[in-house]
Structures are given as C-alpha cells and as structure tokens.
Amino acid sequence: MNTDSIFFSEKKPVKKIALLFTIPCAIVPVMFAAAGLMSIPFGSLLFRFDFILFGAIYIIYFYGLLVSWQLHKNWIPFSLFAVNLLSLLFFIFHDPTEWLGYICVFSIMATSVSNQYFRVGTFACNEDCKI
C-alpha cells in the first residue's frame, strides 16, 4: 500500500488535521458538518449558532483540499466540492428537497475518495493514520 507522504511528513497540527479530513477514513466530521448545515432551514442541530462550527469544519476541509492540490494538481476534487457547495447552498436557501441532500452527501464522499486517489494513488486508507 502506498503511504501518504504529505500527511506523515507534516508537522503543523492544523494542516495535519486538514489533510486528515480529506481522506475517506476520517470523513465523519465533514459529513456531520454537512448534516448540520443542511439542518439550518429546520433549526439548529446541536446548539444555537452551531452553523459557525460546521462552517469552520468546511473551511478546514477546503484548506486540506488546497494542501492536497499542491501535490497532485488535479481539478476533479475541487469540482466535486463545488457541486457539494452548490447543492448545499441551494438546499439551505432555496428548496430543502431530499434529492439535494443526497447530492450533497454523495458529492462530499466522492470528493474525499477522489482526493485520496490523486494524493496517494489508491482508494484504500492507511491503517496507521495518527495525528
């Protein structure tokens, strides 16, 4: 299995967490943030103004995509993330329909999988992903 050299060589904690968020093994916080942001039309999910926390997770995720892009220079993860953001914004501000939620969730999963593939060369996650 190929190792993620950019992840294991990184020393800064914020950059390391951002890189960790962009792999499919550690996508749970980003998926939770997507669910939290999709709950804006219906009320807060955890606490009042929780969208600030969820927005910060999305910003860290985008930062991880930028750091990964410096290595692989491929536009596919960014285009999938743009689909995610557009479907999320359309869900929040226009029409909270079920199919937009599916597009949002599946596009963030596809973003992480494609970013993992372009960064490491495989879809599989490394077993020793430690911060």
How would you explain this protein's 3D organization?
With 131 residues, the protein is an all-alpha fold. The protein has one domain (5-120). 67% of the residues lie in helices and 0% in strands. It has six helices and no strands. It is globular, with a radius of gyration of 15 Å. The two termini are 19 Å apart.
Fill in the keyword field for this structure.
globular, single chain, 0% strand, 6 helices, mainly alpha, 67% helix, 131 residues
Topology:
Elements: H1 5-9, H2 13-21, H3 28-38, H4 51-72, H5 76-93, H6 98-120
Précis, in short:
The chain is mostly helical. Helices cover 67% and strands 0% of the residues. It starts with a helix and ends in an 11-residue tail after the last helix.
| Rg over CA atoms | 15 Å
Mean pLDDT: 81
Which segments are poorly predicted (pLDDT under 50) over 5 or more consecutive residues? none
Number of strands: 0
* Largest sheet, strands/sense/barrel: none
Distance between the first and last residues' Cα: 19 Å
Global geometry: globular
Question: What are the secondary-structure elements, in order, as H or E?
Answer: HHHHHH
What is the tally of helical segments? Answer: 6
What fraction strand?
under 5%
What number of domains? 1
Look at the helices and sheets and give the structural class: mainly alpha
Helix content: 55-70%
